[in-house]
Amino acid sequence: QGQMVESGGGVVQPGGSLRLSCAASGFTFNIYGMHWFRQAPGKGLEWLAFIRSDATNEYYADSVKGRFAVSRDNSKKTLYLQMHSLRFEDTAVYFCAKDNLASYYYYMDVWGKGTTVIVSS
Amino acid sequence: QSVLTQPPSVSAAPGQRVTISCSGSSSNIGKNYVSWYQHLPGAAPQLLIYDNNKRPSGIPDRFSGSKSGTSATLAITGLQTGDEADYYCGTWNGSLSAGWVFGGGTKLTVL
């Protein structure tokens, strides 16, 4: 079935940067597209970014476009989310998830438990 | 304001049946498959339904999904206390650049 484990969360000041990682195991990482999502306190799930299996294209939600960048290292079976210019409203639990297709959205069948990012002065 | 609309909460007694609605538009639910996710606090979200009405292996047949036009519904029968969770519907919004969209989530309380 597979497993995904996020790391890299923490407390950061407004305007700061942070890089999240997501280590995958138990499935063939390099043939699936991957997503990042988040859940702010008291809010629902929000899609942030998608990267194709071969990393040829990335897509972003308007809320993070130009500030966040998704990437992947298929040799390490790891997904990344580089976050810059962080704002108070970026405080959330961040989740990575595996799509069931390589290059388009379908459904997410493997999720991590999340890593917490707190933006605070 | 979520692109897909779900009721904020539903409740029912153990053993009963509950439904959760998800309303969208012709650009999302109207033309794409819907999936449903269960999310318990502190846990990884879990896929419950994909392709509108298919269950992944390991998901009990107490969970079922349906879609009609621009709306979808999740039904849970034989409610158990362990079903208390947040439930989200999701689909893509017409193109890769338009992204993936969720409903706002529905909190299920088993009384």
What does this structure look like?
The complex is a heterodimer of chains A (121) and B (111). Chain A is an all-beta fold. Helices cover 0% and strands 50% of the residues of chain A. Chain A is built from no helices and eleven strands. In chain A, strands 2, 4, 5, 6, 9, 10 and 11 form a seven-stranded mixed sheet that branches. A four-stranded antiparallel sheet of chain A has the order 1-3-8-7, with no helix packed on it. In chain A, a hairpin with an 8-residue loop joins strand 9 (92-99) and strand 10. With 111 residues, chain B is mostly beta strands. Chain B contains no helices and nine strands. Chain B is globular, with a radius of gyration of 13 Å. The model of chain B has no long low-confidence stretch (mean pLDDT 94).
Into which percent range does the helicity of residues of chain A fall? under 10%
Low-confidence stretches of chain A: none
Mean pLDDT over the full residue set of chain B: 94
Estimate the strand proportion of chain B: 35-45%
**Which overall shape of chain B is indicated by the principal axes computed on the Cα atoms?**
globular
Number of strands of chain A: 11
Largest interface: A-B, 24 and 27 residues
Mean pLDDT of chain A: 96
Q: Determine the fraction of residues in helical runs of chain B and give it as a percent range.
A: under 10%
Helices and strands, with pairings:
The complex is a heterodimer of chains A (121) and B (111).
Chain A: E1 3-7, E2 10-12, E3 18-25, E4 34-39, E5 45-51, E6 58-60, E7 68-73, E8 78-83, E9 92-99, E10 108-111, E11 115-119
Parallel strand pairs in A: 2-11
Antiparallel strand pairs in A: 1-3, 3-8, 4-5, 4-9, 5-6, 7-8, 9-10, 9-11
Chain B: E1 9-12, E2 18-23, E3 35-39, E4 46-49, E5 63-68, E6 71-76, E7 85-92, E8 100-102, E9 106-110
Parallel strand pairs in B: 1-9
Antiparallel strand pairs in B: 2-6, 3-4, 3-7, 5-6, 7-8, 7-9
